[in-house]
Amino acid sequence: MNVKLNGDTALHVLVKDSKVRKTTIGETIIGLLVNHGCGLNIKDSAGKTVIEYTSKSDQVFSLLQNASSSSKGSGISANITRIRKIGKDALQAGNLDKALEIYTKGIKDCSDEGDLKNEAIMYTNRATVYTKLNQHELALKDAESAILADSSWHKAHWRKGKELYLLKKYDEAFETFLNGFEVFKLVCGDTDSVDLIIGAVIAFPNIPDNLKATRYEKLLNTSLVQFWPDVLNRLSKESEWKVISYLILGMSTEVPSDHTGYGAAYSIDTSKMHLSTVFKFIEENKTDELVSNWLTPTLMVLLFKHEHFLNFKNDAKDYCIHAAVKYALITGDVRLLEQMPVQGTPFVNKYLNGNNESPYHVITKNGFTQDCQLMKKVVIILTEKNFTASCRDNEHCLPIYNLEEHQFDELHEDLRKISGSGESGLKIQNQLLEQIRKEILQKDYITALQSCFSALLTFDKNDMQRHNKELSSVMRNMSECHLNLRNVEAALRSASDSVNHNPTCDKAHYMLGDVLFFNENFQPALDSYINSLVLLGNSLTFPTSNISRIVEILKKICLVFLRLNDKDASTDIQSLIPFPIGFDIWVYVLHSFILERDLEAAKYIANFMRNLDAIHIQLDIDLKPLCGMELLAKFPECMYFIAYLIRCGCQYTNLSTQQDDTFINAVVRMTFFTGIPNVLIDVCNHLQTGENSSITDYKGNSGLHVAAAQKIEKHKIGRHDVIEILVKTNINPHLKNNDGKLAIDLLHKDDKRSKKVLEKHMTKMTAFKDEQDHHGRANSPATQLKSAAALNQKLQTENQIPKREEQNNEVEDKCKPCQDTFNKCKTIILEDPSLAFKDLIRLIRSKHRSPRHKQIEKESV
């Protein structure tokens, strides 16, 4: 404050300029600097204090002189401080006469001592006392005296504006407040600035209409912008909605099409505003039928432009749609409700207040209006927004229950059509249950839980005290939602209630088991699962088509059983179940565990099943998911299960371990990987009955190629053993892969045993083929027919050749058999490639050298 610039303090700069120090604003700023500690005894570069640059004719001379005296008279300051405290205590105690007497004495003491600063404070305090005594003229006079004593005292200006307002001199009050703000905005705290602005805007609505437009321009001052959020917050808290309307809408009361106001504060952040005070305001002004003309447009800008419609509540339990309904019923204006951007969901009302009341309850319980037509209008709007009247409140009452039919017959009829009572209520219950089911299937547990609460409200009180299947279903679904949202205590309560409402429902006991299992209460969980299985068994006849449900319960029994027995598989799980479970059902249990990769449980069930008498029934299970090498590495015993499923008719051609695989190649790999040949043996048994064993993969590899080259992971079985199993299917050992390799070419040079097996099979297959070839050439009906056709075609061609050409070609007649052989091979090559290839090779190797024979060789190649 006392920083010098070129040897001058801020006070020196002001007092040296005679034009500035003689203006009102100059005097005010000098006063502010003095009050905030600017030193009076500091000398400039010329060795002078500030007072030495003034004359007695200057108003600031007395101000500076008094300030200088006050700083020296510490005894006087102590006396004034004591007087101010005594006066304040008397004022707070309501002893106004004593406070008036004390402040009057204080004014005299300050005046006698020339302490203008404290004199201004005493005048302001006495003005407050006069205000409480409703002596506003005297209060105004004291405020003006305070300004004369110290024009830098901002509270004196506020008090003057306040007294002018109370004297209904609104225009003067408005000017006083704003002028005070302009003078003190740079040195006052935000709270004092906001006080002055609020004083001005509260006075504004009462200014004569012919002056309003001119005065409003002053509110557009940019220096006010930073204070508008706090001003709006304070005004809303004090329920000054008329003033807020001017600040948001400006001088217009039209509803803006884009919800944009045109007032001085329309674009300001309104998130701190207390919107609930609207209801206090409209209650106090309910006799004024014109209130909604400007209040509704104001709220539309605040709620929709600033997207704060969710904050529109009457109290903490409220929801915005309830508040909008209440507003419509009190004011008779439904525009706010119509434009409220909130939609209900048919048959599910997620917009319930703290008493579980829907917006319709607000209508039928309202104490604001008995206008049936207005209430009907509100009902129609809510119906168009898909809000349901079928939800019950905490007293389990529908909205319609609060209406006397004879008094509101039309409204009662409208609500009856959309309420969930009677047959309509049952329909809504069913639709809610279906919606809950869909939401749970979609794993939207939060929405499903909200739907469950809505569904509960469709039940009467009596339903809560007795067995009820639908109510049990709702509680079961609610438990599932709670459990998936990890609300275990709520899930346990809901599951228990589900069992209580329908003790014979297997699904209710199953859900209770799930909750207990999750909470690691294993023995009660096991009991619940067994109860579920028994109840399901009582409702079915074994064997049953509903095997999937039984399988799911058995899986849970197995999982809990393993926890209770600490993974000890010696105990017989069947002994826990009061009726026998067939082997075929355990097959599905094992298959399900394998698919879920719960291999601990799968191994237990597989071991358990070895002690049962296996039965072979027709099954249709996809084997491909059981072939993964990662699965087989952890659970090689799965090979026994696959072999069993093949014997039960499952399609072994689906077996595959890699892309573009063949089933026989996959089986060979799986056998070498696990050392268990059962699947290979079963597949080869099928191939011996007529299946094609010589199929190849995209690289041209047959099962023998894979058997010759595949790395053996488990040495429980030898390569020669696998090859011996394969050759029994008459697989062709002469097939070459895309690299031109035979299976025998891929064997390791030291693997003499496997090589011997393959060579023996190859020799056998060659002899067999030679015999077949000879017999085929002589007796194949297809060959005879196709050769005859080729011969006829040749004869027709020869009849057209001139005799001269026949004479020239007599030399080459010995190639006629070669031509016949070529023609025959050409017709049978797709049917019997082996026979055709052999004949063509013999043809190419013949020693004919004629041009005609060379052409035949070329075409043969």
Characterise this structure:
The protein has 861 residues and is an all-alpha fold. Among the domains are: 10-72, Serine Threonine Protein Phosphatase 5, Tetratricopeptide repeat (Alpha Horseshoe); 340-419, no CATH class; 421-519, Serine Threonine Protein Phosphatase 5, Tetratricopeptide repeat, CATH 1.25.40; 651-774, Alpha Horseshoe (Serine Threonine Protein Phosphatase 5, Tetratricopeptide repeat), CATH 1.25.40; 780-860, no CATH class. The protein contains 42 helices and no strands. Helix 1 packs antiparallel against helix 3 (24-35), helix 6 (96-113) runs antiparallel to helix 7 (116-132) and helix 25 (488-501) runs antiparallel to helix 26. The radius of gyration is 51 Å and the shape is elongated. The chain starts with 9 loop residues before the first helix and ends with a helix. Residues 421-425 and 800-812 have low confidence and may be disordered.
Set out the fold topology.
Layout: H1 10-16, H2 18-21, H3 24-35, H4 59-72, H5 74-92, H6 96-113, H7 116-132, H8 136-149, H9 154-166, H10 170-184, H11 190-203, H12 209-219, H13 228-237, H14 241-249, H15 277-284, H16 291-305, H17 320-331, H18 335-339, H19 359-365, H20 372-384, H21 409-418, H22 422-441, H23 445-456, H24 469-484, H25 488-501, H26 506-518, H27 522-538, H28 547-564, H29 583-595, H30 599-609, H31 629-634, H32 638-647, H33 663-674, H34 678-687, H35 703-709, H36 719-727, H37 752-779, H38 781-799, H39 803-808, H40 816-828, H41 833-845, H42 851-860
Helix pairs in contact: 1-3, 3-4, 5-6, 5-7, 6-7, 7-8, 7-9, 8-9, 9-10, 9-11, 10-11, 11-13, 14-16, 19-20, 20-21, 22-23, 22-24, 23-24, 24-25, 24-26, 25-26, 26-27, 27-28, 28-29, 29-30, 32-34, 33-34, 33-35, 35-36, 36-37, 38-40, 40-41
GO molecular function, one term: molecular adaptor activity
Keywords: ANK repeat, Repeat, TPR repeat
GO biological process, one term: post-translational protein targeting to endoplasmic reticulum membrane
